[in-house]
Amino acid sequence: MDDVVPHEQANLRIGVEPAGPDEVIMAVGGRLGSTTAHRLRSAITALLNRGGIRTIGLDLRRLDSIDSTGIGTLVVAQRISAQVGVRLRLTAVSAYAARILGTLGADVMLGLPPARMGTV
């Protein structure tokens, strides 16, 4: 049986917008998993290396799927960001991602306010 996934869902989409003088919002959509997590890792690393940023907000409202590699990437990115003095936090997630992250307790660890979980 072949897995048929629409092209727009097969890839990870990442956009970065300024949200203040030292804050950006990174919108992540599509599939975050073993074949795409390296792209998110690279994007966050580029922001950290750029400097001048104190907060990275992750907007996961358009995330279609996330696997253990994707979750691990978020957790490690949060830890590395904290080590260099940058706050990485979730600003919003899809209902799907909220269920997965909530089950694992990663929603709280990544700073997602309870009222924002599952916003679309």
UniProtKB/TrEMBL annotation:
Q: Which N-terminal stretch is annotated as signal sequence?
A: none
Q: Which GO terms describe its molecular function?
A: anti-sigma factor antagonist activity
Annotated ranges, domain STAS: 21-120
Instruction: Give the superkingdom in one word.
Output: Bacteria
The molecule here is called STAS domain-containing protein
- Read off the lineage from the record: Bacteria, Bacillati, Actinomycetota, Actinomycetes, Micromonosporales
